[in-house]
Specification:
Blueprint: E1 2-12, E2 15-26, E3 33-34, H1 37-54, H2 60-69, H3 74-80, H4 87-92, H5 100-111, H6 115-122
Antiparallel strand pairs: 1-2, 2-3
Bound molecules: zinc ion.
C-alpha cells in the first residue's frame, strides 16, 4: 500500500461528490483504494462541505440558530419537517447535510412569519 493523493468520489444525499487531492492508500497489485479511519473521516467532511457550498446551503450554526429562535428541540423540529428523529442533530453536528429541498423549508421557517404555525397544523 502506498499513500497517494487524487480525486475520490463519495455519495452525499444520493449524489456523487468529487473531492480532489484526497489522500488515500492504493494497492499496487489490484489498484484497490483503501482509506485509513482518518482519511475516511476527512474525505467525508470535505464531501459534505463541497455539497453544502454547491447548493449554498445553510451552515450547521445557522440551522441551530433558526431552531433556537423558535425554542424547538431537535426532535420537535425533525417532527415538523417529517424527518427521522436524529436528522437535525446530525445536521447541527456536521455529520450530515440537508438536501436543497430541506434547506428551502428551513429558510421559509426563518424568513416567513406564520410558516412554523402552518407546519404545526399539518405536522404528522
Ligand atoms: Zn490488492
Amino acid at each position: 500500500m502506498r499513500v497517494r493523493r487524487g480525486t475520490l468520489r463519495l455519495p452525499v444525499n444520493g449524489e456523487e461528490v468529487s473531492v480532489p487531492d484526497s489522500p488515500h492508500l492504493r494497492c499496487q497489485k489490484c489498484r484497490e483504494v483503501v482509506l485509513t479511519m482518518d482519511q475516511a473521516r476527512r474525505l467525508r467532511e470535505r464531501a459534505l462541505e463541497t455539497y453544502r457550498k454547491e447548493y449554498e446551503l445553510l451552515t450547521a450554526p445557522e440551522i441551530r440558530a433558526i431552531r433556537k429562535r423558535y425554542r424547538l428541540t431537535q426532535a420537535q423540529l425533525a417532527r415538523l419537517l417529517r424527518l427521522g428523529s436524529n436528522t437535525i442533530s446530525r445536521w447541527e453536528a456536521g455529520r450530515n447535510v440537508q438536501t436543497a429541498a430541506m434547506d428551502v423549508l428551513l429558510r421559509l421557517i426563518r424568513d416567513i412569519p406564520g410558516s412554523l404555525d402552518y407546519l404545526r397544523k399539518h405536522a404528522a
